[in-house]
Amino acid sequence: MRVAPQGAARVGALLSSPAGRNLGLVIALLLLCVIGAATAGDRFATFDNMMTILRLASVVGVVSVAMTFVITGGGIDLSVGAVMALASVWATTLATQQMAADFHWIVMVTTALLVGAGAGLINGLLIAYGRMAPFIATLAMMAAARGLAELISDRQTQVVTETGLVDFFGAEVLGVPVLVIIFALTAAGGWVLLNRTTFGRRTLAVGGNPEAARLAGIDVRRHSAILYLLVGLACGLAAVMLLARTTAGTSTHGGLLELDAIAAVVIGGTLLSGGRGTIVGTVFGVLIFTTLTNVFILNNLDSSAQAVAKGAIIVAAVLLQQRVAARGSKP
């Protein structure tokens, strides 16, 4: 008579484990691929289309990996899209591109990284030392960064004239786009940082119980500020990648990027309340949303329906998190 309860308990334990969560994400991704192949046929099931999906996933993927650290640490960042737009605009001003022409296109990359890091540092200082709620601080940065990008660019598209940057980041290595390689390296580095370093353990501790982390000797405020600096750097890198893909900097870049990044992180299994994060899950979350977008585009489906589908997936993921957490808390 005890077989059924024991079996249910084992299933619940499997679902709540990292392997079980990742298995569910893999199944979801495979189902999307089957749907894509069934509805779009040869247009979906090609190597070129797979590279297209990965190329599209690379920009939001880099930001999502960094967002995983912020959410795991108990915070959230709503400004990533606007910061990326600001970095792309600042890196493509006439002055910056002239310096790049005189010296090297690395000037544009450095500018984007510094702008992103600066915005992230401001967020971190306001939240960690200014005692502002992450939602409010990053919401203010979202408005300010987008407005500053519009002022700098005069709401005009700034074309990338330094072809060296486009040639480098738009190249391929053994048929794999450089953008995809950057995403893969970022994900691998993020996994090592979160799972194999003291920094990652401190991030989990700060997100799980900030007071206990403080009593354990962790400088919670400094660590939180560093997390936002990290996501700012990721926005700068994503801006460079987007410049290579679109060959233009504009204040409209990164629209709703923050929602896509947060959704990918949540879908992947990172708790919104902090204390648990998974880079592998985030990568699968990014791939699921990007594949969903690709399937909708290939089938000429309305973007509004796509937004509804994304919303339903997010709600389902959060409800599943709550259900698994409730099961895990039962004796």
Secondary structure topology:
Elements: H1 3-16, H2 18-40, H3 47-72, H4 80-90, H5 94-102, H6 106-128, H7 134-153, E1 158-159, H8 163-169, E2 172-173, E3 176-177, H9 178-195, H10 198-208, H11 210-215, H12 220-246, E4 248-249, H13 257-268, H14 279-298, H15 303-329
Antiparallel strand pairs: 1-4, 2-3
Helix pairs in contact: 1-2, 1-15, 2-14, 3-9, 3-10, 3-12, 3-13, 3-14, 4-6, 4-7, 4-12, 5-6, 6-7, 6-12, 8-12, 9-10, 10-12, 13-14
How would you describe this structure to a colleague?
A hairpin with a 2-residue loop joins strand 2 (172-173) and strand 3. This protein has 15 helices and four strands. It has helices spanning 3-16, 18-40, 47-72, 80-90, 94-102, 106-128, 134-153, 163-169, 178-195, 198-208, 210-215, 220-246, 257-268, 279-298, 303-329, and strands at 158-159, 172-173, 176-177, 248-249. Helix 3 (47-72) crosses helix 13, helix 4 (80-90) packs parallel to helix 7 and helix 4 (80-90) packs across helix 12. The protein is mostly helical. The strands form two sheets. Strands 1-4 form a two-stranded antiparallel sheet. 77% of the residues lie in helices and 2% in strands. The longest helix has 27 residues, at 220-246. It is globular, with a radius of gyration of 21 Å. The chain has one domain (18-326): ABC transporter involved in vitamin B12 uptake, BtuC (Orthogonal Bundle). The chain starts with a helix and ends with a helix. The model has no long low-confidence stretch (mean pLDDT 87).
